[in-house]
Amino acid sequence: MTNIVNGNTVTTDIIEQIVDKFVYTDEQEQKAASNAVNNAIYSETDLDELSDIALSYAGVPEGEQPQAVSFKKDEGNDTFLASGLSHEMSDKNKDIIKAIATRNNVTVVKVEGIVWEDSEGGKNDAINITFADGSVAHIHEYDIEVQY
């Protein structure tokens, strides 16, 4: 599968999102992955190839990555945006979460709506998804964070 974009559109935030999809044994390994991904950006860049490069630096093999990482894997391909998944708890979002989990071969054991407080004291809706291996994906308004 290819996901070709103009290399000029690959920002440091996109590089960070790609690298953060995987688990590394230490900070040096993660930095090396970030540098390798950055060095692989050309006028036409395949985002899937950048993900493969980042994974090649991960000290934890793909099959052993936390399930929350596997769930988030398609975020760079706008899967969540295209699927209509949002940060607000609803039956529709539960169905979308189940479909993504099934497609990415992970087991969801709990989906819950939560309210979290941001750094400015504001209250925000979010969804926490707990997976069979204990890892958690936290879906909030602007991103999906993974905890393991």
Give a verbal description of the structure.
The chain is an alpha+beta fold and 148 residues long. It folds into two domains: 61 residues, no CATH class; 61 residues. Helix content is 38%, strand content 22%. It is built from six helices and six strands; from the N terminus they run E-H-H-E-H-H-H-H-E-E-E-E. A four-stranded antiparallel beta sheet has the order 3-4-5-6. A two-stranded antiparallel sheet has the order 1-2. The longest helix is centred in the N-terminal third of the chain and has 13 residues. It is globular. The model has no long low-confidence stretch (mean pLDDT 82).
List the helices and strands and how they pair.
Blueprint: E1 4-6, H1 12-19, H2 27-39, E2 44-46, H3 47-57, H4 67-72, H5 79-83, H6 91-103, E3 108-117, E4 123-131, E5 136-139, E6 144-147
Antiparallel strand pairs: 1-2, 3-4, 4-5, 5-6
Helix pairs in contact: 1-2, 2-3
